[in-house]
Every structure is written in structure tokens, then in C-alpha cells.
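Encode chain A's predicted structure.
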Amino acid sequence: MIGYVTLGTNDIARAAKFYDALLGEMGAKRFMESERFIAWAASPDAPALAVIKPFDGKAGTVGNGVMVALAADSREKVNALYSKAIALGAKDEGKPGPRGEGGFYAGYFRDLDGNKLNFFHMG
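Encoded structure for chain A:
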């Protein structure tokens, strides 16, 4: 159902370097970009993640309660992607592990602009 998600940034070049390296681990690559935004996806018809300089010209800020969850195909992939994010300078928001019931497994982090994300696996 989700087509794409945008995250505000104040340094598009820094964000691009971070997400090129991190999302490349999931097989995603840039498929749209301009001076104000860059979007990554595993394919043109798959949901995308984008960083953007806000349209109103004001600083990009973190949304309180906003989080982007990125699906991984295994717990091992969650661990690897979380570790990659931290190695790229992300801040820990909850190391990978089981959460609640039903086989939900996730690792949480904040990107270089403070946006909260996680990698998760169900099952």
C-alpha cells in the first residue's frame, strides 16, 4: 500500500552517502533524484525511501512518533543491516532482538539527521 516515504534532511550529500551504502545492502539503488531529493527502491514498482530538503525552505526536522520500518528477509539480515547502519554513523535506538509476540524481530536506529528507522523480520 505504501508507495514511498520521505525523510527530511539538511545535508543531502551526507544523507545520500549514508543511504547509498545502507540501502545498497538490500538491493536498493537510486531511481529518482533532483537537487532537493533522492529516492531509492529495489525496483521502480516497489515502495521507495527518499530524503528531501523540505519544500517550505525551513530546516528538516525529526517527526515525533514517526518511524520508518524496513522489511528484511531474515533475522540475520536485520542484524547485518542494523550493524551497517551503526557503522555508517547511525545512533542506536534498540539493538536487534525479539519484540513482543508473534515472531517480530527488529533493530532500531536514528539516521544522520535523527530520523528513526528500523529493520524488521516477521516469523
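The chain has a mean pLDDT of 95.
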